[in-house]
Amino acid sequence: MKRGDWLLGLFTGLLIGWIFLPTPLGICGIYQSASAPAWVQAIGSVVAILVAAAIPIWQARAASKEQGRRLSIATLRLRSNLEALARTTGERFDRVRNFESDSSANEIENLMFNLNPWEVASVELQIDKIHHLDERIQKPILDLLQENDQYVIDVERIRTSPTKTRVEEFKLLKPTLVARLESVMRRSFNAANAIRKVEEEAKYPDIRKRRKEALRARHD
I need a labelling partner for 204 at 20 to 30 A (CA). Which of 117, 129, 164, 197 fits? Predict the structure, then answer.
């Protein structure tokens, strides 16, 4: 809940209390003065109770709306980070595939240093900000992170290998690196597309139903 919402609720409660309910130090609200008719005082008391009960509900709804807005922003950033990871992984894929296997040990070490998927940290950061992910999003992201972990292990294995054996190590693992990079790129796109589909269905609830009907009609 924003600080402004909390202060507004407090101010509103105090104002309503002053208008309708007796206040300390013998000061009465407008509708609790001795000159006010009994029915006015009764109505004022009821209104004050209703308003006092409504304030926490209103504040809870405002807090829920704010939480939903933050969740939507985090999800949007997660999708953006996944798309960025897919693009940069595609560039790394081309770089490794076209890299000469007979390059020097130092050149291979520099290549491995530039292959670290820094963007994954941003993906994991956004995941930490989201309390729940739709099951259709969870699996593609978990598959991506697991594949990326294996890719990082292979990169570190080559980078930290002894200088005299690094060239041979790279020749041995190059096909695996190319395959893993292709897999990480594909899984990144799959995860981003899964988020997009879930968001579309949340925004347009009948999309999923229409998609199923279209597929059923295609098979019939």
Answer: 129
